[in-house]
What does this fold into?
Amino acid sequence: MDFDFSSLFAFILFGLTIGVVYGIVALGISLIYSGLDIVHFAHGEIYMFGAFFGLVFSEQVGVPYPLALLSAMICAGVLGIVIERVFYRRLTRAGGGYTVAGMGMIICGFGMSVVLQNIAFLIWGADAEPFHVDLGEPYQFGDISLPKSYALTAVMALFLMAALHFFLVRTKLGLAVRAVAHNKDIAFLMGINVPLMISLIFGLACALAAAAGTLIGPMQSVQVEMGYLMLMKAFAAAVVGGFGSLPGAIVGGLLVGIFENLGAAYISPSHKDIYAFLLLILVLMIKPSGLFGVEARVKA
Amino acid sequence: MTEANETDGARGSTPMLSIRGVTTGYGKIQILHGVDLTVQRGQIAALLGGNGTGKSTLLKALSGLLPVWDGVVEFDGEPIHQLRPDQIVRRGLVQVTQGKDAYPAMTVEENLKLGAFTRSDRKGVADDLERVFTFFPRLKERRNQLSATLSGGEVQMLVIGRGLMARPKMIMLDEPSAALAPKVVLSIFATVNQIRATGVSVLMVEQNVRMALLLAEYAYIIRDGKILIKGEARDLIKDPNVKLSFLGGTVADTSREIVA
It folds into this structure.
């Protein structure tokens, strides 16, 4: 049997591209989980808002695409900080994690997701909006042609991951973020303004989601219901990698992307959205804590 | 460190820390029922008591982690009981928690740098890092190791060093000798003695009563959220009531050499 390796390579390449996008959304979900002890169910809607912000800046304001990306990130970051300060903090103050407050937090997240979707519907309507970005001719790798938007997406997503890593590991503020993520009381005793850091963490995570939205816009289209599926996929990515683990979120995203594309290519394209969850089930059967997860989180 | 000495003259004889009638607790459960306590400048005060008497609760209230329900906490002549914990640290009052509260996923050096979070003088921070390493040479050897890999004694050294990195006017130590071998306890107490010599005031919560009384100038014994006995440490060590309630003799014989 003659196997077509160049198309396999193409599927993997496209899988990686979409995978890094899942990865940065999952990164935000993991960042919020490790920093605030909450599972943020409205993160898909932040992603959707980010995509619309990008669209508005790019098409209506008319700024260049990279600037639109940056502006969308800032707007979504601010939106996230406001949401966290006004709504979530009332619940997290009473405790976090899987307590009664944690349950309230989950419901609040779902509620926020519905509210944000309807706000977006009122502003932008239900139609899918095309996101035109003209980047020129696709790149050619042998037989495979890779549209420039895909290449740009992968490069930008990797850049954002590297920047986040640099921020967390090399800067004083990043050190403080890690301290807050591990133990808020001790972080307070280090003289860190913990409430401010929590806003920063939430804003960063939302900015990452907006970046994903603006990056994926030109590949697909922008629509008010796009958040739901992204949330599910990013969630799967975060769990596959190990919930709360930042490298795990990225690896999980890449795996989900590749797995999904290969499944669509070699099994059935009409069930494209199932494969992410198939992978999730497989990983959980073999290693319940996820690939990079810790068996049990010890918290003082 | 020298700053603390210089301000001594300027501020006169106001105590470093003065607590009057402090009550607090968790939720609706009251733990402290009106605590009065004073720490003089450049001195070590010991707060002694068994488990569940309110020692750690008092430290949490002083460092702002627990709200003070009633009463006054004055640090360096100014009220601090309504400030956030990070603001209290900026004033120069630093709580050193138990060793288990080092950040295990960070290196020794990262932990120490975190202690200096409130400071922006790079040169001073670098100097203080070296100073902490002279206090605890073991930490210098292990500066790039994750603190999860340290021994119990080394982690205790790390959290004390981390507290000093903030260049505090006063530190509060939460049971620095807990769960450590007698030899390590000695070296920790010797370090606390050195810290006082640099002009930093110390409030030390301890269960190792004899050691604490040998080191401190003044001591308070807390029980059921109230100060039961207080006095000069050298008097309390002879007090039959104190002896009756607390003193064991485990490390007593070797302990004299560090105070001498």
Notes: The radius of gyration of chain B is 18 Å.
